[in-house]
What we know:
Number of strands: 13
CATH architecture of the largest domain: Alpha-Beta Complex
CATH topology of the largest domain: Spore Coat Polysaccharide Biosynthesis Protein SpsA, Chain A
Structural class: alpha/beta
Strand content: 15-25%
Helix content: 10-25%
Largest sheet: 9 strands, mixed
Number of domains: 2
CATH class of the largest domain: Alpha Beta
Radius of gyration: 19 Å
Amino acid sequence: MKIIDTTTYYKEDLMLDLRFNILDKYVDHFVVCEAKFSHSGRKKELFFNTKNFEKFKKKIIYLVVENEPKNIIADHSNNTSILRNNSVQRISFQRDFIKQSFELFSPNDFILYSDNDEIPQLQNINFDKLNNEIIIFNQKLFYYKLNLLLPNMNWYGTKGCKIKDLKSLSWLRNIKNKRYKFFRLDTFFSDTKYKNVKIINDGGWHFSNLKNIHDLKEKYLNDENHAEYSEQMTIEKITSDVSNWTIDYDHKADKRSLSKNKKVKLEKVDNSYLPDYINKYKSKYNDWLV
């Protein structure tokens, strides 16, 4: 059985450097998928370059999405709901394009999907003992820096299953983060509720917004929620949030809704929370530690 790590990409070489180095000893192949359109629909150049990751070149499979999905609504008149739905369609289209690479693998190979800033902890996973199980990694959530934690938050990021059990990467991403009881009849008719789910606690790290101020603004204005962010995310505001270790929304509420009155405070944690690789090469990441 091969272990295949898959992710999407947009100007995130720092995260890929972390991802490849942390997962290298556990993973047989890395599939990286980049699109020629941002999530906001802006046409862009390609940034990924395997020469930046020579150490992992033999493991990397690089895919390019040339076009936008067909179900994009072009006549939106800046309607926030339509703009956001278009972004969701682009994200799903790029994510599902990864399946193009699966012809290189066998039905019993194990696929892991993560957003680029989600890195699973694979050290104690015995993939040979996983039959038809879907595994979901409960990860710690960090912001702006490698050791700024959003406390008391469970982030269910990376998910995986065998290729033969996979419907699509978007299907895998949307599976509920819960193992349902065997008597739940609704699991027979649902594409998101399953009994054969295994939750991996202490399942890794979600290093969100690990970018400089200007790159953060670019991200906000081109991601899924770009229509809601466009007027609020100024350089001054982003600088203030990063300097004060705060974020603007409550993940336990509605992530799409920015809170104008409530700031959620991040917490500096010690290095025991971090991957062994970061601790071993800490000087390499000094700019991303507080």
